[in-house]
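Why should sequence recovery work at all? Because a backbone constrains its sequence more than one might expect. Tight turns favour small or flexible residues, buried strands favour hydrophobic ones, and helices have their own preferences. The token representation captures these environments compactly. In the example below, the structure is given first.
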């Protein structure tokens, strides 16, 4: 879809920002993560404050947050790759000199390096990769093959906004391993323009869609966001640490602190969706079910 004339200056500004401020991630020398630090701000652990958490010695909590963050970064890589597939495919035959297409090329370059940076961080944390649930893999297939305009950008934005809130905490927390603090800082800086790009692309698409399509997109965006939020909690992490998944799941389900953190992560996204009239009663119900509202 060609961009409306009035949004072209936004994409030109974003391109200039990318030229001014980008990191060469291949040159960033990440230090080895010391084992006496958390993988992420411990308050972001879905188990934080539960009876299991309270019983755990500090070393076990650190081990847990290192494994949890490795999985979060794995999901981030999965989203970054999906984003590139969808957006490059949709723009394969577009005029490459258009500012929005040029920005997209820049965004894909950023995302590739972010994925490499996160994969290195997972290695350094010593946690490894956690296989995703089949439901999420199937959703990824649907997303890659069928997501259209505003849905593709809004689901991408959902992932970016939630990671942004979390990573702002991690990058400033000296309880957190250096690898995660450093990668979070780089990601927060570079993603701020990706989020501006996604918001603008969503607005461009919404300008010309019918009520019916808006309603359908609103629900599909909520379902996609729900699955990402659910996918962050992976039973393989807890089983790998010798925990009983059923009781872990029940404790996370009852954990009011975890709900509050998820709502905090989703707050900027929900505010944007509300502003753009992409929240209806059913979508709100889905966001509440995923603890995002
Ligand atoms: Fe990224
Ligand atoms: Fe991004």
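From this structural description, the recovered sequence reads:
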């Amino acid at each position: 879809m060609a961009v409306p004339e009035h949004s072209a200056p936004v994409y030109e500004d974003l391109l200039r920002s990318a030229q001014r401020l980008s990191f060469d991630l291949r040159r960033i020398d990440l230090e080895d993560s010391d084992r006496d630090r958390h993988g992420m701000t411990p308050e972001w652990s879905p188990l934080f404050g539960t009876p299991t958490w309270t019983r755990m010695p500090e070393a076990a909590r650190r081990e847990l947050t290192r494994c949890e963050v490795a999985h979060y970064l794995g999901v981030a890589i999965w989203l970054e790759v999906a984003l590139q597939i969808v957006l490059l495919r949709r723009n394969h035959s577009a005029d490459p000199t258009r500012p929005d297409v040029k920005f997209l090329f820049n965004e894909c370059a950023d995302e590739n390096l972010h994925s490499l940076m996160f994969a290195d961080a997972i290695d350094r944390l010593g946690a490894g990769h956690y296989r995703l649930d089949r439901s999420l893999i199937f959703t990824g297939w649907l997303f890659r093959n069928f997501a259209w305009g505003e849905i593709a950008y809004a689901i991408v934005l959902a992932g970016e906004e939630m990671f942004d809130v979390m990573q702002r905490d991690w990058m400033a927390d000296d309880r957190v391993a250096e690898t995660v603090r450093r990668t979070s800082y780089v990601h927060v800086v570079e993603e701020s323009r990706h989020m501006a790009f996604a918001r603008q692309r969503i607005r461009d698409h919404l300008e010309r869609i019918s009520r019916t399509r808006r309603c359908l997109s609103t629900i599909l965006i909520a379902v996609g966001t729900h699955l990402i939020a659910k996918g962050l909690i992976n039973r393989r992490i807890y089983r790998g640490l010798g925990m009983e998944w059923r009781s872990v799941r029940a404790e996370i389900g009852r954990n009011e602190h975890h709900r509050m953190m998820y709502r905090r992560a989703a707050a900027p996204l929900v505010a944007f969706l509300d502003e753009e009239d992409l929240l209806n009663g059913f979508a709100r119900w889905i966001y509440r079910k995923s603890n995002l509202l």
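A few observations help interpret the result. Residues 80, 111, 114, 187, 191 surround fe (ii) ion (ligand 1) (CB under 6 Å).
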